[in-house]
């Protein structure tokens, strides 16, 4: 069974306009095209539009290049700068955050509302509007209000629903089809319309609910991960102080039938886990101390790493009689992707450079970076005095590191199956 298998009895043909051709929008466009839909991909970045129309991709994701090339060659997918008439409109644009009071970042849905206003003049009664962008509770209602303000159509005339993506980078094409989906409608009819649409390409269970519940479901999933990773990261600090191998500790603890401790890292990154908990905290700042503390623990782990690298570099400088060269291995937020959003590895590398350390950075999934000069793995192994493993990319596994100074934050150098 291939990643794009869609049962014939589920196939339907519609025109889908996807706003945002990023890490979610572009793979979704490819899957929809393969499933029999005609897809119009929209992005504000002219270079992204041109790249997609050449059948090429601008992000790293397994099998995506072939999928997009096939979709464009068949005529099922084309990209443009502005929306067009369609049956289904799917919004998949970023939802960053801005600084807020009391140290709690506030969600920014400006891109979502701009996307809603851009499609509003094209909407016709009966159209389906889906929001997939991770959003604070109540955003789907604001989308409906923005659409109504421009078009005069309300949520009884349109089907407006929220359906959060829940895919893992590196497995997006598979999980878009196999994962269960939660579809929250502003009306029961909207939820059912969304369910019918997702059934055209999803094999997972399709669960309907209200828009507000679906919005909080997405935030809850990632906040749960963040809290559990914070526990692992805090354990790693305790183990460092007590001289214990944290990964051995976790491996042994997880032999308990009701314990599943996650693995620590250099922090927490990605647009979801590092951001979504703040969306909940911003909505209820006085009753979310656990969620807020977990966020600060995970951010604090990155600051701890920076301090540790500085101390190790200073010790090496004393031994070498010259400034130590620090090799930072990995800039992405997780293994084997090029996604730098909210990446603690990128933050750590950047701050070490700003602090004046001699840093060589290696990110095998990127060809260049606007502010950091990238070096090959071979260069780092040849020139760095201290190797700091921040991301467990596959090329970093199985290296001969005998006699090398190594600081492994991701378990990539451990060979006993516990990394």
Instruction: Tell me what portion of residues adopts beta-strand conformation.
Output: 5-15%
Which percent bin holds the helix content?
40-55%
Q: Kindly give the count of domains.
A: 2
CATH class of the largest domain: Alpha Beta
Rg over C-alpha atoms, rounded to the nearest angstrom: 23 Å
Task: Figure out the total of helices.
Answer: 13
Q: Could you tell me the number of beta strands? A: 14
CATH topology of the largest domain: Rossmann fold
Low-pLDDT segments: 1-10
Q: For this structure, what is the CATH homologous superfamily of the largest domain?
A: NAD(P)-binding Rossmann-like Domain
Chain-averaged pLDDT: 94
Strand arrangement within the widest β-sheet reads 3-2-1-4-7-8-9-10
Q: Which CATH architecture of the largest domain? A: 3-Layer(aba) Sandwich
Shape, principal axes of CA atoms:
globular
N-C termini distance = 30 Å
Structural class: alpha/beta
Write the layout of secondary structure elements.
Elements: E1 15-19, H1 25-34, E2 38-42, H2 46-53, H3 64-74, E3 77-80, E4 88-91, E5 97-98, E6 106-107, H4 110-119, E7 128-131, H5 139-151, E8 159-162, H6 172-178, E9 181-185, H7 188-198, E10 206-210, H8 211-242, H9 246-253, H10 276-283, H11 289-320, E11 325-329, H12 344-354, E12 358-362, H13 377-383, E13 386-389, E14 405-408
Parallel strand pairs: 1-2, 1-4, 2-3, 4-7, 7-8, 9-10, 11-12, 11-13, 13-14
Antiparallel strand pairs: 5-6, 8-9
Helix pairs in contact: 1-3, 1-6, 4-5, 8-10, 8-11, 10-11, 11-12
Walkthrough of the structure:
The chain has helices spanning 25-34, 46-53, 64-74, 110-119, 139-151, 172-178, 188-198, 211-242, 246-253, 276-283, 289-320, 344-354, 377-383; strands at 15-19, 38-42, 77-80, 88-91, 97-98, 106-107, 128-131, 159-162, 181-185, 206-210, 325-329, 358-362, 386-389, 405-408. Helix 1 (25-34) links the parallel strand 1 (15-19) and strand 2. With 419 residues, the chain is an alpha/beta fold. Helix 1 crosses helix 3 (64-74) and helix 8 (211-242) packs across helix 10. It is globular and about 75 Å long. Helices cover 40% and strands 14% of the residues. It has two domains: 8-211, NAD(P)-binding Rossmann-like Domain (Rossmann fold), CATH 3.40.50; 221-408, NAD(P)-binding Rossmann-like Domain (Rossmann fold), CATH 3.40.50.720. The strands form three sheets. It has an eight-stranded mixed sheet, sandwiched between helices. The chain is built from 13 helices and 14 strands.
